[in-house]
Amino acid sequence: MPQTVKGVIARAKGADVELVDIVVPDPGPGEAVVQVQSCGVCHTDLHYREGGINDEFPFLLGHEAAGVVEAVGEGVTEVAPGDFVILNWRAVCGQCRACAKGKPWYCFNTHNAKQKMTLTDGTELSPALGIGAFIEKTLVAAGQCTKVDADADAAAVGLLGCGVMAGFGAAVNTGGVGRGDSVAVIGCGGVGNAAIAGASVAGATTVIAVDVDDRKLEGAKKFGATHTVNGKTEDVVERIRELTGGHGADVVVEAVGRPETYEQAFYARDLAGTVVLVGVPTPDKEVTLPMIEIFGRGGALKSSWYGDCLPSRDFPMLVDLYRQGRFDLDAFVSERIALGDVESAFEKMERGEVLRSVVVLR
Ligand SMILES: NC(=O)c1ccc[n+]([C@@H]2O[C@H](COP(=O)([O-])OP(=O)(O)OC[C@H]3O[C@@H](n4cnc5c(N)ncnc54)[C@H](O)[C@@H]3O)[C@@H](O)[C@H]2O)c1
Ligand SMILES: [Zn+2]
Ligand SMILES: [Zn+2]
User: Fold this and answer.
1) Which of 12, 36, 43, 313 is the most buried (most CB within 10 A)?
2) Quick check: pTM over 0.85?
């Protein structure tokens, strides 16, 4: 029997989000219904609401979640009812050209649920990043459920489902940060701080946090920043060069998604250094760079979708680091809120007051 539960939708571009009744079908072949226990508020949810991702309104928002599998459909073997899982937006297909090349973290044909969750009048919803988890129960592809140890706090480990994984992986997987590297991270929200933590765990010895908000810079120190630069009052490129012996950083992670910060990243890296763009630009943004500088500086300009992660490999590893006290996931949880508080969480995010507001259910 389909179930009717409460969930948070963005009905139209720029309109306040609404808590409404949503119909969740029983899981079909390859699908699972998950009782959501926690879901973080990511900047990407706000991008959806602002029409910055696509126009497929109404969206069912929320995608950084953990919960317990309630039911599975036919043929599902990887998870079972009762399993504690983190939801992921990279259920790899195993067959596309990226998977065939042994690089499944680039999978071009990831699985989502085939059936649609709907409003009570039958209107189909577009789940954010194929998940949709500001809701009591959600329907996903079984491969979107990554089983992890059940005794971890859902509000903390659920954040691995998007922003924290994206940031950590941007530094470690995409940027390849290693022992002794210098790293600069521009933008110290949930994503940027996770990149700082990742760089630190991977052995970087200089980790420079850049933001325009002193509160964020103060917070970044907790995650392993060795230096901070305020982009409002200081010349970011100059300061990063000064802090790296005049050279620039080996790896610069851009975690804002704006042309001006991308340009800072481009010029703040050392020769043969790497820029990683993990911030998501809106479609109207453009950068202009001298081609001779692109050539002359060498190195790599990369982008990082979801931190080039493989959820089945990376989520359990990060939960282990968390439990060993080497990766402080609790520090990302600024506040615990109810489903009805998502709109005010967006406002707090825009005012820079929080790293992550986390919706906690039951
Ligand atoms: N690539 C991915 O897979 C992925 C996954 C999740 C989120 N994201 C994206 O990452 C970005 C960051 O997400 P978040 O949740 O951390 O957002 P957030 O709003 O929590 O953090 C953004 C930070 O950037 C800072 N900032 C803004 N303008 C700046 C400037 N000019 N210079 C320096 N800092 C500046 C803000 O003060 C804030 O601390 C967003 O674009 C989001 O969509 C990407
Ligand atoms: Zn694939
Ligand atoms: Zn996200």
Assistant:
1) 36
2) yes
